[in-house]
Fold this sequence. Notes:
The radius of gyration is 17 Å and the shape is elongated. It has one domain (2-67). The longest helix is centred in the last third of the chain and has 39 residues, at 29-67. The protein has helices spanning 2-23, 29-67. Helix 1 packs antiparallel against helix 2. By secondary structure, the protein is mostly helical.
Amino acid sequence: MSEARNRLVALTRELLNEWENTRQYWNDAKSSEFEKRFLNELQSGVNAAVTNIESLERILSKIHNDCD
C-alpha cells in the first residue's frame, strides 16, 4: 500500500509543478478560480487519502502481527 501512497504523492506533486509552469502563461481571475476550486480541493483530498492509507497500513500490519 505504501507504493500506492508514494505514487499518489508523486503524481500530485508533478501535477502541482506543472500547474506552476502553467501559471506563468495563464495568470488571471479564471486561473485563480480554477486553482481554488479544483487544485486546492485536490490537495486536501490527497492529504486525507495519504493519512487514511497510512492508517490502513498500521491496521493491516497489526492484524498481520496478531495472526502470526
